[in-house]
Write a structure and sequence with these properties.
single chain; mainly alpha; 3 helices; 0% strand
Length: 86
Amino acid sequence: MRKLRKKRMEKRREMLHTAKKLIFAADAVINEAWIGEEVTTRDMQEKARQFFNMELTDETATLALVARLEERGYLVTPGNIRSLDA
């Protein structure tokens, strides 16, 4: 029972640490951009790779970046999110 609880706690710590890394990388991307400049998931992926040697999928990078932008008070709507594939 104790080992199971310990594994769960370790997993939670690991997930929290990963989330903090994503927040840090997103903040770095946002802070680096000039007013009105576009931030992309590619920028997010590069920062995560540069700082933490993490490989992010496009979806993970987009979700982390959008969540952080919204937290910081930026207006993020489907209209102002565009795909680089389009």
